[in-house]
Design brief:
seven-stranded parallel sheet, three-stranded antiparallel sheet, binds 2-amino-2-deoxy-6-O-phosphono-alpha-D-glucopyranose
Length: 244
C-alpha cells in the first residue's frame, strides 16, 4: 500500500481530486467508483473546481456509486443520489446516462443488484475506485462481519453506521434505514486502482488497524491490503496512530 500523509484535511482531499482528475485526463472514458460521506465532500468541491477551470472533461466518464439506502426514492433529499447530485454531478459535465447509483427504491432488490453488477461488467469494471472508510472499518456498506459478500447486495446496517449517517436524517439515527444496497467487497477489490481517503482524528484508530493489522472481514477496510494498487491518502490527524 502506498500511504500519503498530508498536513491538512484540505490538502488530502485536493490530492485525491488531483489523482482522479489526472486519471480522467489520461483516460477520458474512465470508469470511476464513488463514495458518499463527509470525507468526500472536499474532494467533490475540488473536482468541481478542476472542471470549472476547464482543466478536466467528464463527458465520457462513467460513474458507479458504492451504495444507497434501501427504501428511499431517487429524489429523496436524504438519499445518496441527492448527495451526489448536490456535491458533484450538478457541478460537472458527467452525462446522466453514465451515472449509476443503486436504486434504493427498487421493489425487487435481487434484480437491482444483479443489474448493477451487469452494468459494471458491460463497461469492463472499475478503473479507479475512490472509497472512504467508516469508523468501524466498513467500505461502502460492507459492515464488519464473520463473512463478507463479494458482489453488490442488500446490506444490513449496524447501529453505529446508522448513527454515523444520522446527520442526513435530522440527527435522528432511528430514521436511518436499516438496509442499504452496497457494492460487495469483491466488486471494490476488482477495481484496477483503489484510492482511500481518511481524514480527522476519529479515523486514526481504524486506519492503523486497516493498514498494519491482520486482514479480516471483521475490518473490511483491511482487505485492501491484498490489492496490488492502493493509495491511502491521510491527513495528519487520521495518520497519528499509524505504527509504520
Ligand atoms: C458512509 C458510506 C461510506 C463512507 C462512510 C464514511 O456510511 N456508506 O461509503 O465511506 O460512511 O463517512 P464519513 O466520510 O462521513 O466519515
Amino acid at each position: 500500500m502506498r500511504v500519503v500523509i498530508l498536513r491538512s484535511n484540505r490538502q488530502a482531499a485536493q490530492a485525491v481530486a488531483r489523482l482522479i482528475a489526472l486519471a480522467v485526463r489520461r483516460a477520458p472514458d474512465l470508469v470511476l467508483g464513488l463514495p458518499t460521506g463527509r470525507t468526500s465532500i472536499p474532494v467533490y468541491d475540488a473536482l468541481a473546481d478542476w472542471h470549472r477551470r476547464r482543466r478536466v472533461d467528464f463527458s465520457r466518464v462513467t460513474t458507479f456509486n458504492l451504495d444507497e439506502f434501501a427504501g428511499l426514492e431517487r429524489d429523496d433529499p436524504r438519499s445518496y443520489r441527492a448527495f451526489m447530485q448536490q456535491h458533484l454531478f450538478n457541478r460537472i459535465n458527467v452525462r446522466a446516462s453514465n451515472v449509476h447509483i443503486p436504486n434504493g427504491a427498487a421493489r425487487n432488490w435481487r434484480r437491482e443488484v444483479d443489474a448493477y453488477e451487469a452494468a459494471l461488467r458491460r463497461v469492463g469494471g472499475l478503473d479507479v475506485c475512490f472509497v472512504g472508510v467508516g469508523r468501524n472499518g466498513h467500505l461502502g456498506f460492507n459492515e464488519p462481519a464473520a463473512a463478507l459478500e463479494a458482489r453488490t447486495h442488500l446490506a444490513r446496517l449496524r447501529p453505529e453506521t446508522r448513527r454515523a449517517n444520522a446527520h442526513l436524517f435530522n440527527g435522528r439515527w432511528r430514521r436511518v434505514p436499516t438496509y442499504a444496497l452496497s457494492m460487495g467487497i469483491g466488486t471494490i477489490l476488482n477495481a484496477r486502482a483503489v484510492v482511500l481517503l481518511a481524514t480527522g482524528p476519529e479515523k486514526a484508530g481504524v486506519i492503523d488497524r486497516a493498514i498494519t493489522g491482520p486482514v479480516t472481514p471483521r475490518l473490511p477496510a483491511s482487505l485492501l491490503q491484498v490489492h496490488p494498487n492502493v493509495v491511502v491518502v491521510l491527513d495528519r490527524d487520521a495518520a497519528r496512530r499509524l505504527k509504520v
